[in-house]
Please model this.
Amino acid sequence: MLIKRIVCEVDTANAEAFAKAQSEWEALSHVNGFIKQAGGWRKTIDGPLTAEIISVWENREAYDHFMENEHDSIYDDNEQKAVILSLEVTLYEEDKSFVQDLLHNPDIQYEPDWTVLKA
Model:
């Protein structure tokens, strides 16, 4: 199982635009090898907002195929790039318990509209 953890900083003025764009990743539900994606806002005191998104893939091969063939069209179409101050991506090859820990982080206020499930 491959897990992709995405952490983005977004200024407060663009929070709504980021959230709207994040809710437009529904196309993932039809991608071979995709399992689930969820995310939300990390609780912060000051400064830019931090969004954290976790996506789960069957394996590295499926993820790489998605990145090479489908990712950019979704990302470009939803115009999310324009509202992100910084972006950090980490990939993990882990088991289900690790995924559950990431998807149930008490420091993140999960947004239901950001959840995508395999169709």
Remarks:
- The helical segments are 15-22, 60-69, 71-77, 96-103.
- The beta strands are 2-10, 34-42, 49-57, 86-93, 108-110, 116-117.
- Residues 5 and 118 are 18 Å apart (CA to CA).
- The longest helix spans residues 60-69.
